[in-house]
From TrEMBL:
Protein name in the entry: HNH endonuclease
Top-level taxonomic group: Bacteria
Stated family: Belongs to the Rv1128c/1148c/1588c/1702c/1945/3466 family.
Organism: Bdellovibrio reynosensis
Keyword Nucleotide-binding among UniProt keywords: no
Residues of the HNH nuclease domain: 260-317
Single Gene Ontology MF annotation: endonuclease activity
Keyword annotations: Endonuclease, Hydrolase, Nuclease
InterPro entries given in the database record: DUF222, HNH, HNH_nuc
Species lineage: Bacteria, Pseudomonadati, Bdellovibrionota, Bdellovibrionia, Bdellovibrionales
């Protein structure tokens, strides 16, 4: 039996938050130890030529995990505030990795060392930011040159590795396409990587350009009703099986909600409209958005603009399960 199954949702979340705090504190202590071992060169007496070899071979860290911790330890030596922000969660190892790469690039370009004061200012500029926001900040502060060239390399399996630069607008468009096509991509092959998005867009264009039939590699979408009906308790199954009460057939939905209505709802809502009733926190996800009836059709809800909203697939699924009688503890 799962030992965590005895906890309520509230208890489980509280335990997780407590563990995350302990994990951050432990990470800080580990980084401190790595810094001290690196400073004393203890790894040399253990038969390793570098602290990196010690972390990977003696302690069993993966190469990337060892490098992130080593970068944090060395930055901590010059910027002591790093320790506090690691514990608070306003700074993480991914951000420190971005800082380290930017510092190395700046030193290579300028031929001069980045001072401790500059590093302190750099750390202060990225507190609480995401990895992508951190990339932008360090590039802006160091005035790193733009890389707008394209490179491609043919690999042994005849795949091609590409490296190219997108403008901010181009990147946002590609991510928007990724979110909107998520339903089809996830059903087709379980992947929503950018290379799959590019392939999907290319297929769409070529099918339209040359009037080819739609690709058969993507299975027909099943309604949410059919996907979860198996897990619904018997009393709810009876309710859902009555077509006079509830209609979830995807063909009916497509006919009753016109493309124009879908565009209006997408333009109006833009993101998932789920709001936590206790905290007031809104989801804001733009991934795999679905049109949902605020008042469900089985309860008399109509296909009107004011009764329709965007929900991400996960919150739409959760709402449906609750209405169907599948209650979470």
């Amino acid at each position: 039996m799962n030992p965590l199954s005895r906890f309520t949702n509230e208890e489980l979340e509280a335990r997780l938050k407590d563990l995350v705090q302990k994990e951050r504190k432990l990470l800080h202590v580990i980084i401190e130890h790595i810094r001290e071992i690196d400073g004393r060169r203890i790894y040399l007496t253990k038969g390793y030529s570098s602290i990196y070899d010690y972390l990977t071979k003696e302690l069993g860290y993966s190469g990337s995990a060892a490098m992130r911790r080593l970068e944090a330890a060395r930055l901590l030596r010059e910027v002591p505030q790093v320790a506090e922000h690691l514990q608070e969660g306003t700074l993480n190892l991914s951000q420190i990795g971005e800082l380290s790469r930017a510092i190395k690039e700046k030193e290579k370009l300028s031929g001069e060392k980045v001072s401790s004061f500059q590093k302190q200012d750099l750390v202060a500029a990225v507190f609480g930011k995401t990895a992508q926001e951190t990339q932008y900040e360090v590039a802006r502060i160091f005035d790193l040159p733009l890389k707008d060239y394209d490179t491609q390399r043919l690999q042994k399996d005849e795949s091609v590795r590409l490296e190219f630069t997108l403008t901010k607008e181009q990147h946002e468009k590609l991510l928007r396409c990724k979110d909107l096509a998520a339903h089809i991509l996830l059903q087709g092959n379980g992947s929503v990587s950018l290379n799959e998005v590019i392939e999907f867009l290319a297929d769409q264009y070529l099918d339209e350009k040359f009037k080819k039939p739609k690709s058969s590699r993507i299975p027909q979408q099943k309604s949410l009703h059919e996907e979860i009906k198996k897990s619904v308790r018997p009393s709810a199954q009876k309710l859902m099986s009555n077509p006079a009460i509830i209609t979830t057939d995807s063909v009916v939905e497509r006919k009753s909600i016109t493309p124009k209505m879908r565009k209006l709802i997408l333009a109006r809502d833009k993101c998932c409209q789920y709001v936590n009733k206790d905290t007031g926190a809104k989801c804001h996800s733009t991934f795999a958005l679905q049109i949902d009836h605020k008042t469900s059709k089985w309860a008399g809800g109509m296909n009107t603009i004011d009764n329709l909203q965007l929900l991400c697939s996960q919150h739409n699924r959760m709402k449906y399960k609750r209405e169907a009688g599948i209650e979470s503890r």
